[in-house]
Structure formats: structure tokens, C-alpha cells
Amino acid sequence: METGEITALLPEWPLRFVTEGLPENWAEIARSGDAEERRLRALALWNRDLLDLVPGFAETAARTLVDVRTCIAWEKPLLVYVFDNGADGKLAFAGWAPADTTEPRLWSSVPAPLRKFLREVHAGFVAADGESFGPLPPRSMRTLAELADSPDGDPDWDEDAAEDGRPLSTRLMQIARNAGLIMHCVSPDLPPGQIALVYEGDVDPTDFGPAFDELLVTGIRNQ
Question: Do the Cβ atoms of 189 and 159 come closer than 8 Å?
Fold first, then answer.
């Protein structure tokens, strides 16, 4: 794709298309003049154990990803992934370069394959709005208490949580969200392999893989 077409998919992003100042394992993507080679090399970066958890996304990405370009935005390297849904048109996701970062408060509750992805592949993989349909950058992951500007605990949430057995606001951390109000949260109080879908005070624990797979696929298909 032409750079102008890609810029139009991310109009609020100050994209600069570059071939230098990038992670070493992006070099072949940056140098390639062939979109098919770029997309295959980018998909090969993704850790297998994460893709095994999200087979719907893996299949959809393999089928609809048409190009990947190396860019800088806000002085940070990223890969821009362009998906083509046919009649629904094209859309873009941004995958930030891995970077040394302070681990968020409940980092150990993030499933291991996703932690590996965020450390080694992309430190965040998000839709054009910069915050939905994929894992947030670790630096942007916040507990519900922190999101409520009460880092030591949100009294309104915690009072009800104590009565109905929900995790406290300091023990639920948002790692992703959809385009609406549903937050995907981890907690040390959930069984291993589960994630909590949080919506207007309701907490719905569910298996991480299917829930995260649905989130990623929905982002590609229905933005």
C-alpha cells in the first residue's frame, strides 16, 4: 500500500515511514519492497503460544492482513498492520516496539504468553483509537482503583465488592477493552487462565483465550 493510504487509516497518528532506528528483527520488514514478504515476516514475529490461544485471530490475520509498514510515531517505533475486510474496507492496527518499561501493578496476573508478547513482540497492539481491541501497552495498564484516581482503593467499588465477593478495585487491572465500556481485566483473585469482563460494575470471569480471541477478531472485522 502507498504511505498516503496508510496515513489516512490513522489520521490522528503523526506517522513517519522509516527504515532506520528500529528493532533489529524489524530490519528485513523495513527493507522489503514486497507487501507479501512484509506481512509474512511480521506475523512470524508473534509468539506461537499466544497464537495458539487465539486461533480465530491467527486465521483471520493470515487471511486479511495485506501489508505491514515500519514507522515512528511520538518518537516511538511501531509496525502498522493493515487489514482488508473486502466490502468493509481497510483498517489499521499499531504494534509498538518492545521497550524496557516499569511492569504494571498486577503484571504477574497477565497470562504468560501475553507477557512474552508484550516483552518481545509488541509493547501494545491497538486499533486506530490507540486503546481498543488489543493488549494495551504495559505502561497504560491500570487497576480499577487507579482508573478512578484512587490508587489505594475506590471506596464505591470496594464497598459493594466486599459484599458480593468481587475482586477489590486494587486487584483488577485493565489490560484491554473493546470500543464500548467492556474492560478486559486480570486479577490474582481469578483462577489461572481466566480474565474478567467488567461492565458497569458487573464482573464476568471467563477463559482468557476465547475472550481475547473474540476481542482481537472483533477489532479486525467490526471497527
Answer: no
Nearest to 195 by CA among 180, 181, 210, 185: 185
Contact 197, 182 (CB under 8 A): yes
Q: Using one digit for the tens of pLDDT, what is the confidence trace for 137-185?
A: 999 999 999 999 999 999 988 888 777 778 999 999 999 999 888 999 9
List, edge to edge, every strand of the sheet that includes 202-207.
142-143, 173-177, 183-186, 194-199, 202-207
Give the pLDDT band (50/70/90) at residue 100: low
With beta carbons less than 8 A apart as the criterion, state whether 30 and 72 touch. Answer: no
Question: What is the 8-class DSSP label of residue 98?
Answer: P
What angle do the packed helices 55-64 and 208-222 form, to 10 degrees? 20
Asked if residues 99 and 139 have their Cβ atoms less than 8 Å apart, the reply is no
Look up cell 504511505; give the residue: 3
With cell 502507498, the residue in question is: 2
Rounded to two decimals, the pTM is 0.93
Within a 13 Å sphere around the CA of 173, how many CA atoms are in the beta-carbon half?
Answer: 24
Task: Determine the average pLDDT of the residues in 103-125.
Answer: 95
DSSP characters over 101-136: -PPPTTGGGS-HHHHHHHHHT-S-EE-TTSSSSSPP
Element (H, E) at 90: strand 90-96
pLDDT at 180: 80
pLDDT at 5: 92
Around 105, how many Cα atoms within 13 Å sit in the side-chain half-sphere? 20
User: What pLDDT sits at residue 209?
Assistant: 96
